[in-house]
Amino acid sequence: MSEIKFGTDGWRARIAEDYTFDNVRRVTQAFADYLKQHNQADDGTVIGYDRRFSSDHFAEAAAEVMAGNGVPVWLTTRNCATPVISYTTVERGAGGAINITASHNPPYDNGFKVRDPDGAAISPEGLQEIEQAIPDDVAEVRRIPIDAAEQKGLVTRWDPDPAYMAHLGTLVDLEQLKQAGMKILVEPMWGNVAGWFPKLIGGGTNDIQEIHAGHNPLFPGMARPEPIEPNISPALAHTVELGADVLLISDGDGDRMGIGDEHGTYIDQLRVFGLLAYYLLEVRGERGPIVKTISTTSMLDRLADLYNVELHTTGVGFKYVAPKFLEVNALIGGEESGGYAFSGNVPERDGILGNLYFLDLMMKTGQSPAQLVETLFDRLGQRYYYDRIDVRFPSEKRPQARKRLEESAPRSIAGLPVVEKVTVDGFKYDLGQSGWLLIRFSGTEPIIRVYCEVTDDALVKPVLEAGLDLAGLKD
């Protein structure tokens, strides 16, 4: 049987190669044992899924195993956005959740995420405990056929949408947003958020249109349902054609978000993080700590200073962000990938709420997305520029590349002095007030990521090139 390992956010693998029904059953058995070990099994588990190939059937397979272990299941009646699954875990008082999704991975992958009673990503220690409990053979798995499990009352089909919608209404004024008079284009990337914004804020004065809202697990027109360019380029072009005020983007499972401005320009995820923090601190007047990963923006450091709030930095992934978010009772937490969590909500990325908050920011300030970026830079006193390069890199070559990076000690990068080298998660080179460079291995794919954020647009390319050179990736 295949070895199953949890990466940055869950286990992901290629369908029919390693991602098989038997392997899903094995990892579900381990999660059932984990819930029992932590006295959470009697509280049941929520199981949801995305629109990928056979996700609904993999979800039923997981439900059969939970039922076979005597763990009650709330199985969603249809594909379900990740934040809805996390909220339902809390709303149902469940001991945890299983989410069948590979998030932004290519169409040939599927995945398996687990959540704790708070709807949050389980800690690295907990994931290691689950990994160690995975049986070597599927013969060790206990399960009951889905029909029998439903007849016994161990599996209940559940529509989580109404409770989640009511919850959103306590965080943002949906009735007011319905009357915002905006022309909105929504890009759900063939995923779980299709239909959500017309349902939430349609029926008033808004003109809401969607692109790529059908169900197609091949994600035609994009390499993967990740809310960055070039995957979103058609939607950005359509924004201009429609004369839309804003483009709202959600990734395939709905936990991440993106924004396109009125000119069809992508507002990168670091700037969106800065704008959402500004919205909560300045526009709503709220206060609380900010939690960010090492791979995201220094704009948050500046905002924390300006508004006198704490800032906490973690490794990459919500398995690090969520525990810190809960520990410090954060106002906002997030990461470079475009996933943000908010106070008053579950400690999980929520692309639906994040997009609603962005619309509320536009409505309350009367500013367009492009104007909001300029307002943010004026408040910060300088501009920030970000980019990232992903390079496919065989896992077996990682030790050699890691050794090279561990031994690297550059005094300068692209002419900028290196103030400090940080190795919390990857290899980050602090360039002082000028910015930073980060090189790290993806936790979910055989990829090396090279990121940078600088305060001079002309330095983005040279800094990234220097990063590629440090990692031994340049020809």
Task: Describe this protein's structure.
This protein is an alpha/beta fold. It folds into 3 domains: 11-163, Alpha-D-Glucose-1,6-Bisphosphate, subunit A, domain 3 (Alpha-D-Glucose-1,6-Bisphosphate, Chain A, domain 3); 180-380, Alpha-D-Glucose-1,6-Bisphosphate, Chain A, domain 3 (3-Layer(aba) Sandwich), CATH 3.40.120; 385-470, Alpha-D-phosphohexomutase, C-terminal domain (TATA-Binding Protein). Helices cover 36% and strands 20% of the residues. The protein has helices spanning 21-37, 55-68, 82-91, 124-133, 146-151, 161-171, 174-178, 196-201, 233-242, 269-283, 299-307, 318-328, 351-365, 369-380, 398-407, 460-470, and strands at 11-14, 45-49, 73-76, 96-100, 109-115, 155-158, 183-187, 207-210, 246-250, 257-260, 266-267, 290-293, 311-314, 332-334, 340-342, 385-392, 412-413, 416-417, 420-422, 427-430, 435-441, 447-454. The strands form 5 sheets. Strands 1-5-4-2-3-6 form a 6-stranded mixed sheet, sandwiched between helices. A hairpin with a 5-residue loop joins strand 14 (332-334) and strand 15. The radius of gyration is 22 Å and the shape is globular. The mean pLDDT is 96.
